[in-house]
Amino acid sequence: MLEAADSLFEEFKNKKEIVSAINTLQLSARTVTRRIEVIAENLEAELANDMENCIFFSLQMDESTDGTNISQLAICVKMVFSDFTTKEEFLKVLPLKGSTKGEDIFSTFKKYITDVKLPVQKLSSITTDRAPAMTEIIDKLIEKFSSRFEDLAALEPVLRFFINPFNVTEDDVLEIVSVYFELHNIEDLELEIINLQSDIILKAHSNDKMFWNLVDENKYPILRKCALKIYSYCATTYNCESLFSNMKYLKLKYRTKLNDSHLDNCLKTGNSKYILNYKKLAENMDTQVSH
Q1: Which residue intervals define the domain HAT C-terminal dimerisation in the entry (predicted)?
Q2: Measured at the alpha carbon of residue 198, what is the angle toward residues 192 and 202, in degrees to the nearest 5?
């Protein structure tokens, strides 16, 4: 609330007094709940927009038990955009109230991505904590979608190529890239690799962190798209693990009335990296009240 006040009363001469007065306010539990719901809805809309606009995204999943002994599946997302910028966000926490076997976790995950219409055609990879049940999810995804969820260790030559395409021969990566990225015209890929490795201007920028953003999309469409997919990968479940640390404070043994929706909303508001427009939120709430 105080953070919102900084935005709402930024141009007020008596801002300090207003913020001080707000600091003494005591809101009812129902009011606090509704405010968190509104903020979470706004964050969900921001994330949905980014998911729509990103080129690829990867998911990180981990499972843990909360303070009331309910297993929770945390899902975080890493998105990559056309300019090679990336964003990492908390996506969802799903309660696993039955069995926590791999097949049951997969069913819960599958229902979620179906309900929210997650654009799975952009999904590049999934990282888990490698527990047996979570590994089974990867097996199910390979069975349902394609080989694109296979172990990234097999892609080491490809990853080395995209880190520095001038230190790897085309023979090392050609077949792997064509199979993994489901390419049908290997000749076009081969020509792009040859042309890129012969480009002295690009070679001069080979150590630039944003090298692939310098690569012409019209001249190297296949390689650029493959690079975007590589950029979307995430090798750890650190974000999920951090989320569970926060969850333990939110849902304690003595705070059992926090339902699934409220837990998800609290985690969104507490872990999102999006910067909220509190002024716009307040204006929207005023409009709703007036009606």
Answers
A1: 211-266
A2: 90
